[in-house]
Amino acid sequence: MTAPEHTPEQTPDPFSDQAWRAAIEHAAGCPACRTPGAQCATGERLLRAYETATRQARSAETM
Prior knowledge:
Elements: H1 14-29, H2 31-34, H3 41-62
Helix pairs in contact: 1-3
């Protein structure tokens, strides 16, 4: 199950939703992302993009 901080429903920002979708779609088709202990630079980059977008959306909400 996905951790609550990684659900796109929590942030109304379309970029974070788009970043989440890109990360999930990549992981679904990437053998390295689906292999425990394996590393995938693209998967990591997509996940970081999602995390950054989510942080920015949350920062904008508190302003």
